[in-house]
Structure formats: C-alpha cells, structure tokens
Amino acid sequence: MQTLEQLRAGELAGAVRLQLRCGLTEFPREIFELADTLEILDLSGNALASLPGDLQRLHRLRIIFCSDNPFTELPEVLGRCPALTMVGFKACEIKTVPATALPAHLRWLILTDNHIEQLPAEIGRCNDLQKLMLSGNRLRALPPELANCSKLELLRIASNRLPELPEWLLAMPRLAWLACAGNPFNEMRTAASPQVRSIGWNELQIQHKLGEGASGIIHQAILDGTSVAVKVYKGAMTSDGSPAHEMAACIGAGRHPKLIPVLGTIPDHPERLPALVMPLMDPSLRNLAGPPSFASCTRDVYPEDQKFSAATLLGIARGIASAAAHLHAQGIMHGDLYAHNILNCGKGNAVLGDFGGASMFEPGTAYAAALQQLEVRAFGCLLEELLERCDAQLPQLRKLALECLQQPPLARPLFAGLLAQLE
Questions:
Q1: Cα–Cα distance measured from residue 368 to residue 365, given in angstroms and rounded to the nearest whole number
Q2: pLDDT digits 0-9 by tens, 371-413
Q3: DSSP 189
Q4: Which of 254, 279, 304 is the last residue in one of the domains?
Q5: 212/291 same-domain check
Q6: If we measure between CA atoms, which residue out of 37, 35, 28 comes closest to residue 8?
Q7: What confidence tens digit (pLDDT) does each residue in 6-52 have?
Q8: What is the pTM of this model?
C-alpha cells in the first residue's frame, strides 16, 4: 500500500498499480500524473462518494476497486474508461446502477453487499462479461437481456429477493459456477439437515491460526484430547453469500470420504460469531491450484511446473465426481467446484472443501437437473485443466471432458453417470 504523501511527492512516477487507504473524501488529482502507466487502482476503505468526471484520462486503467466507500450510485464515468475490464464496488451503499456506468469491455463486475434493486437491461450488451457478483443486494428480478452475455461463467446472486430462477439463466451456454442461496425460491432446508453436536467454546483449547479465507478464519484446537480445526465466520456477507447458508450446506452434506465432515457447531462464541468444528486434515493435503488471477478471470492458476500422472489425475477425477454426486443426491449444489477448493495429497487422494457458494435445491423439481448440469460444466473445466498438465493422452477422459462442456447444458450428463464412466 502506498501513501498520499508519496503520490504528492512524485515518488510513485511510473506506477502500474496504486493502492491508497487513508480516509480520502475526494479523489486525489495527482493520480492523473500516472495516466501513462497506471493499470490497477485500489481506493477501497476510504470515504469517497464520487469519482471525477474525467476519470477516462487514466487511459490505461484496466482494474478499479472502490469497495467500502459510501457510493450510492455506480459512477457513470466508469463507462467512459476505454480500457476498463474489472470493476469492484463491494460493501458500499449503491442503490442505482446506470446503464452508462458499464464499461464496453467489462469482464468482471463485483457489486456484492449493496442496496441494488434493479440492473439495467443494457448489461446484456457486455459481450465480454465472464464474472458477475451480486450477492447481498435487493434484486427481485434479473434482466432477461443478461441472457445475451454468452461468455458469463460465474454468477453470484445469493441473499437477494429473487422469487424464482429464470429458465433462460439455466440455459446459458458457459455458466458453471452459480451461487443462489438465500432467495425466496431457495430457502435453507434446515429440517432435512442431519443433527450435529453442539460444542461449547470452553470445551476447546484454541491454538494457532491455520489459515484465513473470504468467509472466516481457521484455527487449530484441542477437543477431548484430539486436534481439530475450528472455523470462525466473520459474520459479514462474502462475495459468495451468507455464512449461514455455507454452514447449512456443510452440515446438510452429511458424511462422505471426499468431503470434510462437520463435528459440531459452536453456539456460544465470545463474539457471538457462527463457528464450526471439523477434523484436522492430513498435513500432506494441499490446494490443487491457486484461485483465478486478474488475467485468468474464471480459471484457476497452477504452478508452471505442475504435472499429473494418469493415475493421479484419475484419482482426483473419481474422488471429486463421487463427492459431487453425493452432494447432488442430498439436494446441494457446491457452486464453487474449482481446483483451488480441492485438497490433494499429490497421489490422487482429493477432498472437496469450501461451501461458501453452495445452494440447496429440491431433487426432482423442474430446475434440479439443470442446476446439476451447470456444475457438470465446472467439472469439465477441471478435467480440461488437469488434462493440460498430464503427459498421458487419456482419450476416453478427454471425450468425457468434452461431454461435460457441451452446449446446450441439457446435453451434459449428470454426475451419477459420470462416476459410472470414471469407475
């Protein structure tokens, strides 16, 4: 993070990326001195309510973040920025999204945790849109024109006020990662969830921090003489949705060897935050890949030298297909079936985690199969990535990956069939 003093002193000349978090109430005009180089601008966590009308002078600007600022409207000037592809205004106070605020080459739009009730029909003109994050708003409908965004792959619409999921949405050719929990059509099915133990905070001996994600912090702890993992949710809306829905899906998933089980919930956290207790995972398990980068947008990032043997690849594919088939049988869509949410020992043993984007559905309903076929596309993307990093040809697996990626979605198999082929 840089400082306003550095900017004003000319010390940031030639900067490609600028991050200022210093209580700004006005846009510093000195930023325009970086117009010939600046590509990424992060002004999150300030007190800004507007952007200058000549922002387009930053002609190389590709990415802008203005989250946690009191904007009530998405600034129209964004639509005049010629190179802008990624816009992030999370946790502001935005009520209005003008059609003119949408950049021509928009790929990634983050408007999570605002007060938006309606999107402009003109969003259907964003032909390059791949990632749209709208969880935690007040949307009662999605514009039908969004169906024209044929490149859309990831959509977050959890915790809104949508009475139904549009049929055209389920027919979108590339949509693979969908989070839609917490809408009237998708209320939590708590009655169907298995019972888990209630674990008092004083029963746990909290030790060191193991990691931190968008939704919570994980610590190692001791419970009844055994090492466990304790996930304490931050209690706020994440880009995927509400922690309450994530917990419900984790519990509702039940037991499966390729899922991380829930040992219990903690009802009396000192700060009244929701929390889960889970087994401590084998330390040999590592994330299969890193999350998408700004450049890759919707695709995970693997180490450059990452290679998989045929046996390892097949082990991962079978394990994840088995986990997904189990979830779908329980009426749960993972919503974030990605390599970065898969723990892998390097020898084919793989475990699917992170239910932040999970949604529940009633098996047998009109849209149940269509939801499952969206997730099958995500599995197809995973197979495609693994096959790119495997020296063996595996023609049958390549054929299976193509079946998972078929358009329209109704042409894709379900996980039960996929698992039978893999085994």
A1: 5
A2: 999 999 999 999 999 999 998 889 999 999 999 999 999 999 9
A3: -
A4: 279
A5: no
A6: 28
A7: 999 999 999 999 999 999 999 999 999 999 999 999 999 999 999 99
A8: 0.94
> Does residue 130 contact residue 298 with C-beta atoms inside 8 Å?
yes
Mean pLDDT of the chain: 93
Q: Nearest-5° angle of CA 292, CA 296, CA 300?
A: 35
Structure tokens at 392: 């063996």
At residue 117, what are phi and psi to the nearest 5 degrees? -105, -20
- Residue position matching structure tokens 């905070």: 201
* Distance of alpha carbon 151 from alpha carbon 172, whole angstroms: 9
Give me the amino acid identity at 324.
A
- Residue ending a domain, choose from 279, 312, 342: 279
Q: Tell me, yes or no, whether 418 lies in a domain.
A: yes
- pLDDT given at position 190: 43
| SS3 state of residue 220 | strand
Whether 407 is covered by a domain: the verdict is: yes
Same domain, 326 and 406: yes
**418 & 290 share domain:** yes
Please give the angle made by the CA atoms of 283, 258 and 190, to the nearest 5 degrees. Answer: 115
- With DSSP H G I counted as helix, E B as strand and the rest as coil, what are the percentages for the chain, rounded to 5? 30, 20, 55
**pLDDT, tens digit (0-9, with 9 covering 90-100), for 50-88:** 999 999 999 999 999 999 999 999 999 999 999 999 999
pLDDT at 288 over 80: yes
- Give the three-class secondary structure for 216: strand
Quote the domain boundaries for residue 407.
286-422
- Separation between Cα atoms, residue 38 and residue 31, nearest integer Å: 9
Computed on alpha carbons and rounded to an integer, the radius of gyration of the chain in Å comes to 22
**Residue 374 counted as domain residue:** yes
d(CA 255, CA 195): 12
pLDDT at 236: 74
Report, as an integer, the average pLDDT of 130-143. Answer: 97
DSSP state, 155?
E
d(CA 123, CA 214): 27
Q: What is residue 24's DSSP assignment?
A: -
The verdict on residue 219 lying in a domain is: yes
